[in-house]
UniProtKB/TrEMBL annotation:
Pfam families: Aldedh
Protein's recorded name: Aldehyde dehydrogenase
A Gene Ontology BP annotation from the UniProt entry: aldehyde metabolic process
Entry's Gene Ontology molecular function annotations: aldehyde dehydrogenase (NAD+) activity
Record keywords: NAD, Oxidoreductase
Any one cellular-component term (Gene Ontology): cytoplasm
Alphabetized Gene3D superfamilies for the sequence: Aldehyde Dehydrogenase, Chain A, domain 1, Aldehyde Dehydrogenase, Chain A, domain 2
Active-site residues per Swiss-Prot or TrEMBL entry: E207, C241
Origin species: Dyadobacter psychrotolerans
Domain (Aldehyde dehydrogenase) ranges: 8-423
Sequence similarity: Belongs to the aldehyde dehydrogenase family.
InterPro entries, alphabetized: Ald_DH/histidinol_DH, Ald_DH_C, Ald_DH_CS_CYS, Ald_DH_CS_GLU, Ald_DH_N, Aldehyde_DH_dom, Aldehyde_DH_NAD(P)
Signal peptide, first to last residue: none
Length: 452
């Protein structure tokens, strides 16, 4: 690890990664590589946890292609030096900001979207002009192995390298000094990464998780709410960082809403026989998630098969914050439903807990919309939709508080891997002598008049 980081640092210091043309060439190369290997990437992820072709394209490759295309077309603009107004005290001078790459970067990926969440940050790092070491997740061995192979066979390791492995390899990497670390994963491991980075004063972007709420008000379009929310919950079998974790539905419309939810699950045919419904990543997680089901509260589903790594889409009703399912991020296909009659109590309950990564509000009421969006802090989210804010590359994506630090996608990703260097570029003509000795009362009065 030490040797690899040294190699990348020396390459970065040669300035080879800085020209915008170089970065665009690398981004295009990555784009072509993914396109050429699309079928292999599809097969690998299917082997890992049964993710089918359509879902792989929609939730993984589409986002990576979109990030690549945006970066390729916008990079010249993002990398431009930005002129800034010069204040009176500093005249005559020019002021400007130079975006510069932070340097040698480390990207640590999770298993749940092994392409999108590993390659997305890599695109941002390349766009910014950094070198990159990618450590994909060991839990999706086929997908991560293929990504590592494609990168290591097609890019020089002094510029872009993939290191496979689990905790020991990641720990060894984290001992090195990086210029920026981009981590996507769980809150406990995020804390380990943050502590390791602190030893070197390395800046971090932490894309973490948590329990993301859905609020369904009594005036919402229940048909649309059920359809969009069920899709968002059960895609990737609920193993999505921004999946709806639990729902607060207004008690007046609970029955009607639940009927629509049940109908929607049947319409989507999420059964063990449906090969489009993905598996849970491993037996350990299947056991963990299925143990959150309280059979006495199951409204739909509830069946599971640990060996086959399958859990039926399950909806639980009559749930309270005391239930086991409300004690941790579910990260699987279980949807607990809570009811409310006072929106202020819902807002208070959310605010008492760690700030969520996402929040989804289904309502037609503009006052409620304004209230929830202004009173509750969360990473990002949707109104009358769920999950899809991640697919608009112009919306910075990230958490807040316990759900993360920093954000990326589009220009936000470029910024995450960049430092904005501020320059005051002074003219060589003689300047007003107000700051120079002798410091007279007249000069002080003049200074005061400038800011008065
Ligand atoms: P994880 O934290 O277990 O693992 C993430 C990465 O950290 C992996 O590459 C793993 O090898 C490494 N790792 C694990 N334990 C480590 C340790 N002790 N020391 C050093 N490195 C270690 O997360 P996961 O299970 O892969 O992903 C699920 C979690 O990630 C969920 O909490 C989910 O919400 C979150 N997540 C967040 C986002 C986001 O964009 N905010 C996206 C996907 C997943």
């Amino acid at each position: 690890m030490e040797e690899l980081v040294k190699l990348q640092r020396s390459y970065f210091n040669s300035n080879a990664t800085k020209p915008v043309d170089f970065r665009i060439t690398q981004l295009q190369k990555l784009y072509d590589l993914i396109l050429l290997n699309e079928d292999k990437l599809g097969d690998a992820i299917h082997k890992d946890y049964g993710k089918a072709k359509f879902e792989t394209f929609l939730t993984e490759l589409y986002i990576v292609y979109d990030e690549l295309k945006t970066a390729i077309s916008e990079l010249s603009d993002w990398a431009q030096i930005k002129p800034i107004k010069t204040n009176l005290l500093n005249e005559p001078a020019k002021s400007y900001i130079i975006p510069e790459p932070l340097g040698v970067s480390l990207v640590i990926g999770p298993w749940n979207y092994p392409y999108q969440l590993s390659l997305g940050p890599v695109v941002a790092a390349i766009a910014a002009g950094c070198t990159v070491i990618l450590k994909p997740s060991e839990l999706t061995a086929h997908s991560s192995g293929l990504v590592a192979k494609l990168i290591n066979e097609n890019f020089d390791r002094k510029y872009l390298a993939a290191v496979e492995g689990g905790i020991p390899q990641t720990t060894a990497l984290l001992e090195q000094k990086f210029d920026v670390i981009f981590f996507t994963g769980s809150v406990p491991v995020g804390k380990i990464v943050y502590q390791a980075a602190a030893k070197h004063l390395t800046p971090v972007i932490l894309e973490l998780g948590g329990k993301s709420p859905v609020i369904v008000t009594d005036d919402s379009d229940l048909e649309i709410a059920a359809k969009r929310m069920i899709w968002a919950k059960f895609i990737n079998a609920g193993q999505t960082c921004i999946a709806p974790d639990y729902v607060y539905v207004h008690e007046q419309v609970q029955k009607e809403f639940l009927d629509k939810v049940a109908a929607e699950i049947i319409a989507a045919d999420y059964s063990i026989a449906n090969e489009n419904f993905v598996n849970i990543v491993n037996e350990r997680n299947t056991s963990r998630v299925s143990a959150l089901i309280d059979p006495s509260k199951v409204f739909v589903g509830g069946q599971y098969d640990i060996e086959k790594r399958f859990i039926e889409p399950t909806v639980m009703t009559g749930v309270t914050w005391e239930d086991k399912v409300m004690q941790e991020e579910i990260f699987g296909p279980i949807l607990p439903i809570l009811t409310y009659d006072d929106l202020d109590c819902v807002i208070a309950a959310i605010k008492e807990r760690p700030k969520p990564l996402a929040l989804y509000l289904f309502t037609k009421d503009e006052t409620i919309k304004e209230k929830v969006l202004s009173e509750v802090s969360f990473g990002g989210g949707c109104v009358n939709e769920a999950l899809m804010h991640i697919s608009n590359g112009d919306l910075p994506f990230g958490g807040v508080g316990d759900s993360g630090i920093g954000n990326y996608h589009g220009q936000a990703g470029f910024k995450a891997f960049s430092h904005y260097k501020s320059i005051l570029d002074k003219e060589l003509v003689s300047d007003p002598d107000v700051k120079y000795s002798p410091h007279t009362e007249a000069k002080l009065a003049l200074l005061k008049s400038v800011v008065a």
